[in-house]
Amino acid sequence: MTLPDLRQLRHFVAVAEHLHFGRAAAALHISQPPLSRSIQALEAQLGAKLFERSRRKVELTEAGEWFLEEARQVLARLEHASRAVAERAAGGAGTLRIGFVTIADYSVLPGLLSRFKAANPGVALALRELVTEAQLEALAAGDLDLGFVLPPLPPREFESIAVNREPLVVALPARHPLAREHGPIGVRSLADQPFVMVPAALARGLSDVVLGLCARAGFAPRIAQEAVQMQTVVSLVSSGLGVAIVPASLLNLRRSGVVYRPVREPHPRIELRLAWRRDARSTRLERFVELAGRKTK
């Protein structure tokens, strides 16, 4: 059997999408007779009828519907491969789309962006602050190239590297009685306090560590307020609406009306990871990952 060529595949997809030979020919910038001959030759090569034709309409056959999906995948892979080769030839020029959670902005992100931009001036950076769940959805959909996220991650779909690990601190309203203490604070002393937290569904790893600390201290935190972003959590603490246990990088936020104290009890460090889709490949992505990996060594 003679295999179809790419021109035939493009012709077939155009007719399948327009279901009209005249409009498909116009979209392809060719006349209708050669398009009809191309489709007829393709059907002969495949030994299958791809379209039902009448004077009133054109419809895909069952074989045509199946072949359409396959043809689209072949053309998409060719386009992806062509872009990847062009990127490598151009030294990785293009745009790198990066998502990040709040604590990345107050820890490793600024330095990494500065070093990457200095080494790769031809790459534009498009940044989006998103919670981990939204980043993973955007990565899976191809709307982001990289994401600074909090574990856990679906292991089969994403690759990732750890880029930072940090302890927790207690964030207190500046006028809170415990704020007068200058050393580490025991979690047990927070048992009767209202807590401000990020919803567990949006930061599972952080939530598990905080709830575990409270459980070992003999209580479940009374959650008075929830906020999606870490800076909002700190802002609510500064307003006197509760206390919070947050990653230490939030000290760099320098919000007035908030006092931070170390957590006295031993606890797991909060890990920040740089994640990307397992099948994603580009020169600029690989360069950023390499830079981030060197930063953590």
What class, by secondary structure content? alpha/beta
DSSP summary: helix tally? 10
Overall pLDDT metric? 92
Q: What is the general shape?
A: elongated
Distance between the termini: 55 Å
Strand coverage percent: 15-25%
Count of structural domains? 3
**Rg, alpha carbons:** 28 Å
Model description:
The mean pLDDT is 92. This protein starts with 5 loop residues before the first helix and ends with a helix. The chain has three domains: 6-89, Orthogonal Bundle (Arc Repressor Mutant, subunit A); 94-163 and 271-295, 3-Layer(aba) Sandwich (D-Maltodextrin-Binding Protein, domain 2), CATH 3.40.190; 168-268, D-Maltodextrin-Binding Protein, domain 2 (3-Layer(aba) Sandwich). Helix 1 crosses helix 4. The radius of gyration is 28 Å and the shape is elongated. Strands 4-3-5-12-6 form a five-stranded mixed β-sheet, with helices on both faces. By secondary structure, it is an alpha/beta fold. The protein is built from ten helices and twelve strands.
